[in-house]
Design a protein that fits this description.
Rossmann fold; 3 domains
Amino acid sequence: MTVNARLRSMRYGGPIAELTSADREALMTRGAENDASVAADAAQIIAEVRQGGDESLRELARRFDGVAPESLEVPSDVIRRALDETPLDLRRAMERTARNLTTVHRTFMPTAVETQPEPGIIVGRRPDPLERVGIYAPGGRATYPSSVLMGAIPARVAGVRETILCSPPDSSGVPSRSVLAAAAIAEVDRVFAVGGAGAIAAMAFGTESIPRVNRIVGPGNAYVAAAKLQVVGQVAIDSPAGPSELVVIADESADPDVVALELIAQAEHDPRACVLAVAVGASVADRIERALDAALDVARRREIVMSAFAAQGGVLLAGSLDAAISFSNEYAPEHLLLCVRDLDAALSKVLNAGTVFMGMTASVAFGDYMTGANHVLPTGGLARSYSGLSPLDYVRWTTYQRVSPDTAASLAADVACFAEAEGLPGHATAARQWSER
């Protein structure tokens, strides 16, 4: 296939300023579509689990996983054996990730604060760890022990009292060995061989075996994502997750081969992955296109990668670095890789991104696995309002207030005036009593 033929298979190309209104709309509202059939199926599964509890979960395992587990909970000795049987190089890699996550997320921990808006008034705010959180780890065709570490370790750092993990069983009736090993390294309290929308329902509402949690985190397929959205209000969730996303901003200092490999790495996740290079200058765009053409020839998951480029990928041309960053801020990618000469100046202008990778050596793959930053990140443009997973997701804030007797007397008249204006005479009376004592 020639370069030009390949590029014609990409959805987006050419100058940003010349994008059609339809293409710009698709770029900025990706992930907003709602598959009614998926949502309906997820709702049905949630209803089944709420009604049937553990027995419904066993039936779902027979239906979707082809197994009939005797117990939904994975025994602790099975988890320990999975860790013992993990190849040493993989175990060392996971333990390194765990150490880095612990270091980074300890630094991210919020602290209690107090302030005095005027003499005699003290207002404070204290972060309290959630009592119990549920972590979902995908299974089936692919398993992600890294997601176990990303979800569980910040919870442990935050002081969550109990963490539970749900992950689909494989043919052995329990989750994959690598997922169980990661659960052991992350010190997850309980593990259940339950997957899909049923796992989300179980953690949100509780069953005979699976306790109800205060927050559910972790990636999953479309049914998991739909189920998480449907239990909001019953339980908190992390940001709604969609296909992986990457925007690479590259100027003339960028190595086009690096840019190409980074795009392919994220595109191989999913045929719906969103991968864009934004080149500052026509010659930069041309070099990236040629590097992509060469790299695609040897990509091991080329069919998935090409599907991703055809659906939501391409190489766009920006007239300046500011224009490229402006586009990225509007796009709000999950991952933003800056391959530009003045990294700090570029970073200062970034407003909306799940996480930013500074320079070509800061590969997105490093962040996916081992830098200690979290890879559970907002997608679909939600980086405009959501942040990546951190200890902040595992605490709730208790606000407290103190008012001295003298200050209570000084507040009374103004508060009573406010309350009367809002038609709340009981509030006014409660305030005035302190001016009369």
